[in-house]
Design goal:
The protein has one domain (8-47, 61-439): Orthogonal Bundle (Cytochrome p450), CATH 1.10.630. The protein contains 17 helices and twelve strands. It has helices at residues 13-32, 36-42, 48-55, 74-81, 124-134, 140-144, 147-155, 169-186, 190-199, 216-238, 247-254, 259-290, 292-300, 305-315, 347-350, 385-402, 436-439; strands at residues 62-65, 68-71, 86-87, 166-168, 321-326, 330-332, 335-337, 342-346, 407-408, 413-414, 424-426, 428-430. Helix 12 (259-290) crosses helix 13 (292-300) and helix 12 (259-290) runs parallel beside helix 16. It is globular, with a radius of gyration of 21 Å. The protein starts with 12 loop residues before the first helix and ends in an 8-residue tail after the last helix.
Length: 447
């Protein structure tokens, strides 16, 4: 019997804690006996790349636990993410199991919890409808109109400019710039942007909590942060004449005034889009700092920031694991998959599959060989690709221009229990001194 995620709002602290601890305990025990997916999901004391190598080869899809399947190979991963029979909901059992998980459940928990059954649960048909709705507002050509404004969101941030002053890449630069960029893109009322900035950090586990139980405190904070951002969206949608002429107003017009789909798209952008953009920007900077020749290439030619971000999507993606549920009995790679089984794609492993990518463990911006990244093949987040790429690219481009001699001031510190996103909590960096680009705080906006 498949167990689905629960809505933490419906449970007391004691019941929610029991659910989270039980799932955590089961993942921990399964990891101790060598179950590879459990080792990855418990997110402790394992080198994922070493583990990924053991999962490649034949069979390309492996059963790692009761009614749970996993692949680390690119070709089947791409096929699985494109298969409409694999869904975000178990249709046979309704939209959610409403009982906490217990050791006597007789099944593996599928999704641990979720805070939204709409914005976070899109399937292929939902994705197609959203793509049509957002075509003129969040597609590639649409968001390109906001490139200069997005760059300005990062250019306008105050950074320490004293000799060898340190700052936190995430909290001082990437996240506040992302907040300003996304708020401007959607056209949130100016008075709500500060509140959005305050709420966003609490939503860090929004994707990770699907497959890995957060702590009780993090789970409650996630609900508070998500609901707070939802309230900001609802307030904006309740008074559309007062909205700036941003994507939110345009989406309302495209939807004929129907607020439900617009609300889902806005929440997906403001919460998940922000999580992916900040993760991608931080990972790109980390990769560039670890490869000084590539950092210098971006410094000399700022347009190369786009290639660096594109390669990071493959090399260190902002989504590492995607779990989908078989909506019907099916056969995948010659193996019988029962309805309700969990099929898990290890995106980061598949994107380093030597069968799909030459020299997969090298960071090579501008590479022309190899398959397309799989991150946005997940229909739940597919429409976010143009926005996430734009924000991350401008963050990297502006940072390199403003701090061309940036160096790490310590190792990036990651949150606990974030196997899906690898979310950074702190990223200390140090500037080697002032340059002409930073003396007046100005960086030329892209044309």
């Amino acid at each position: 019997m498949t167990r689905h995620q629960i809505d933490p709002r419906q449970f007391s602290d004691s019941d929610l804690a029991r659910h989270l601890l039980t799932v955590r305990g089961v993942q921990w025990m399964n990891g101790d006996r060598g179950a590879p997916l459990a080792l990855l999901l418990r997110d402790h004391g394992v080198d994922p790349h070493t583990l990924h190598a053991t999962l490649r080869g034949t069979p390309v899809l492996r059963q790692t636990d009761l009614d749970v399947w996993v692949t680390a190979c690119h070709e089947p991963a791409a096929a699985l993410l494109a298969d409409p029979r694999l869904t975000s909901q178990d249709t046979a059992l309704g939209r959610r199991r409403r009982r906490v998980y217990s050791l006597g459940a007789g099944a593996t928990v599928k999704y641990v919890l979720t805070v939204d059954d709409t914005a976070l649960a899109a399937d292929h048909a939902d994705s197609a409808r959203s793509a049509e709705l957002t075509r003129d507002w969040l597609s590639g050509p649409a968001v390109e109109r906001h490139r200069a404004r997005t760059a300005a969101a990062f250019t306008g941030l105050a950074l320490p400019d004293g000799e060898r002053d340190a700052f936190d890449l995430l909290t001082d630069f990437v996240r506040p710039g992302t907040v300003a960029a996304l708020a401007g893109l959607l056209g949130l009322p100016p008075g709500s942007v500060e509140r959005y900035a305050a709420l966003l950090p609490a939503t860090t586990h929004v994707l990770d909590s699907l497959l890995c139980p957060p702590t009780l405190a993090a789970g409650r904070a996630l609900v508070e942060g998500y609901d707070g951002i939802a309230a900001l969206v609802d307030q904006a949608l309740a008074a559309p004449p007062e909205l700036p002429d941003g994507a939110l107003a345009g989406l309302l017009r495209a939807a004929g005034g129907d607020t439900a789909p617009v609300r889902s798209v806005a929440l997906l952008t403001l919460v998940v889009g922000a999580r992916l953009a900040t993760g991608l920007a931080c990972s790109t900077v980390a990769a560039l700092l670890a490869h000084p020749d590539e950092w210098d290439a971006v410094r000399r030619e700022p347009a190369r920031a786009e290639a660096a971000v594109a390669e990071t999507l493959r090399y260190d993606p902002p989504v590492r694991v995607v779990g989908r549920i078989a909506g019907e009995a099916m056969e995948i790679a010659g193996l019988p998959i029962a309805a309700g089984d969990l099929v898990t794609v290890l995106v980061d492993a598949a994107q380093r599959d030597p069968a799909a990518h030459p020299e997969p463990d090298r960071f090579l911006p501008g590479r022309t060989a190899g398959a397309a990244p799989l991150v946005f093949a997940d229909p739940r987040i597919s429409l976010l690709e143009p926005v996430v790429r734009l924000v991350a690219t401008e963050a990297v481009r502006v940072l390199v221009a403003r701090r061309p001699r940036l160096t790490p001031a310590g190792e990036p510190v990651r949150h606990i229990r974030v196997p899906v996103t690898g979310a950074v909590a702190r990223f200390p960096v140090r500037t080697a001194g002032r340059t002409a680009a930073t003396q007046d705080g100005a960086v030329a906006a892209p044309r």
